[in-house]
Amino acid sequence: MTTTDMPAVSECTVTGCSYNHDGCHAFAITVSGEHGHADCATFIPLARKGGLPMAIAKVGACSRTDCMHNRDLECTAPGGVRMAPGVGENTTNCMTYARM
Protein backbone atom coordinates (compact mmCIF):
# COMPACT_ATOMS: atom_id res chain seq x y z
CA MET A 1 0.00 0.00 0.00
CA THR A 2 1.32 3.46 -0.88
CA THR A 3 0.14 6.88 0.24
CA THR A 4 -1.90 7.19 -2.93
CA ASP A 5 -3.79 4.04 -1.86
CA MET A 6 -4.79 5.36 1.56
CA PRO A 7 -8.59 5.38 1.90
CA ALA A 8 -10.22 8.79 2.16
CA VAL A 9 -12.49 10.00 4.92
CA SER A 10 -15.55 9.95 2.68
CA GLU A 11 -17.89 11.40 5.30
CA CYS A 12 -17.65 12.99 8.74
CA THR A 13 -20.77 14.18 10.57
CA VAL A 14 -18.98 15.26 13.77
CA THR A 15 -19.71 18.98 14.05
CA GLY A 16 -17.72 19.37 17.29
CA CYS A 17 -14.36 18.51 15.70
CA SER A 18 -11.99 21.35 14.84
CA TYR A 19 -10.96 19.58 11.63
CA ASN A 20 -14.52 19.19 10.36
CA HIS A 21 -15.85 22.17 8.43
CA ASP A 22 -17.43 21.27 5.11
CA GLY A 23 -15.73 17.88 5.43
CA CYS A 24 -12.61 16.71 7.22
CA HIS A 25 -9.64 19.04 6.69
CA ALA A 26 -7.01 16.95 8.50
CA PHE A 27 -4.18 15.70 6.28
CA ALA A 28 -4.67 12.21 7.73
CA ILE A 29 -6.58 10.73 10.66
CA THR A 30 -5.69 7.94 13.07
CA VAL A 31 -8.28 5.38 14.10
CA SER A 32 -7.57 4.17 17.62
CA GLY A 33 -8.86 1.37 19.80
CA GLU A 34 -9.92 3.26 22.90
CA HIS A 35 -13.34 3.13 24.55
CA GLY A 36 -14.09 -0.28 23.00
CA HIS A 37 -14.95 1.40 19.70
CA ALA A 38 -13.04 2.41 16.61
CA ASP A 39 -12.45 6.02 17.65
CA CYS A 40 -10.92 8.86 15.67
CA ALA A 41 -7.78 9.76 17.63
CA THR A 42 -7.42 12.93 15.54
CA PHE A 43 -10.66 14.41 16.97
CA ILE A 44 -10.01 17.84 18.55
CA PRO A 45 -12.98 19.56 20.26
CA LEU A 46 -11.97 23.22 20.03
CA ALA A 47 -14.04 26.22 18.95
CA ARG A 48 -11.27 27.12 16.49
CA LYS A 49 -11.37 25.37 13.11
CA GLY A 50 -8.11 24.09 11.67
CA GLY A 51 -6.50 21.79 9.17
CA LEU A 52 -5.55 22.37 5.58
CA PRO A 53 -7.65 24.78 3.48
CA MET A 54 -8.06 22.26 0.66
CA ALA A 55 -7.76 18.70 1.89
CA ILE A 56 -9.17 15.27 1.31
CA ALA A 57 -8.40 13.58 4.61
CA LYS A 58 -7.02 10.06 4.48
CA VAL A 59 -6.74 7.30 7.07
CA GLY A 60 -3.08 7.42 8.05
CA ALA A 61 -3.05 4.67 10.68
CA CYS A 62 -5.40 2.25 12.41
CA SER A 63 -4.73 0.38 15.65
CA ARG A 64 -7.98 -1.63 15.51
CA THR A 65 -6.32 -4.92 14.60
CA ASP A 66 -9.66 -6.71 15.00
CA CYS A 67 -11.15 -4.81 12.03
CA MET A 68 -11.53 -6.71 8.78
CA HIS A 69 -10.20 -3.64 6.89
CA ASN A 70 -6.95 -3.46 8.91
CA ARG A 71 -3.87 -4.86 7.22
CA ASP A 72 -0.50 -4.23 8.89
CA LEU A 73 -2.03 -1.33 10.89
CA GLU A 74 -3.19 0.35 7.67
CA CYS A 75 -6.81 0.79 6.61
CA THR A 76 -7.82 -0.97 3.39
CA ALA A 77 -11.53 -0.10 3.41
CA PRO A 78 -12.79 0.22 -0.16
CA GLY A 79 -14.56 3.48 -0.86
CA GLY A 80 -13.15 5.28 2.17
CA VAL A 81 -14.35 5.53 5.76
CA ARG A 82 -17.31 7.25 7.39
CA MET A 83 -16.93 9.02 10.73
CA ALA A 84 -19.81 9.87 13.07
CA PRO A 85 -20.31 11.08 16.65
CA GLY A 86 -19.33 8.48 19.24
CA VAL A 87 -21.06 7.19 22.34
CA GLY A 88 -19.31 9.36 24.95
CA GLU A 89 -18.54 13.04 25.12
CA ASN A 90 -15.80 14.17 22.73
CA THR A 91 -15.62 10.91 20.78
CA THR A 92 -15.85 10.12 17.12
CA ASN A 93 -16.36 6.63 15.73
CA CYS A 94 -15.33 5.02 12.48
CA MET A 95 -18.61 3.71 11.11
CA THR A 96 -16.74 1.61 8.52
CA TYR A 97 -15.16 -0.49 11.30
CA ALA A 98 -16.17 -4.15 10.87
CA ARG A 99 -15.04 -6.60 13.52
CA MET A 100 -13.52 -9.86 12.22
What does this protein look like?
The protein has no helices and 8 strands. The protein is globular, with a radius of gyration of 12 Å. Strands 1-7-8 form a 3-stranded mixed β-sheet, with no helix packed on it. Strands 3-2-4 form a 3-stranded mixed β-sheet, with no helix packed on it. Strands 5-6 form a two-stranded antiparallel ribbon. It is 0% helix and 28% strand. It starts with 8 loop residues before the first strand and ends in a 6-residue tail after the last strand. It has one domain. The model has no long low-confidence stretch (mean pLDDT 90). The chain has 100 residues and is mainly beta.
SS-derived structural category: mainly beta
Give me the number of helical elements: 0
Distance between the termini: 21 Å
Number of strands: 8
β content, as a range? 25-35%
Question: Rg from C-alpha positions?
Answer: 12 Å
Q: Sketch the topology as an H/E string, one letter per element.
A: EEEEEEEE
Task: Give the % helix.
Answer: under 10%
- Unreliable stretches (pLDDT < 50, length at least 5) are none
From the structure above, extract its key features:
100 residues, 0% helix, globular, mainly beta, three-stranded mixed beta sheet, 8 strands
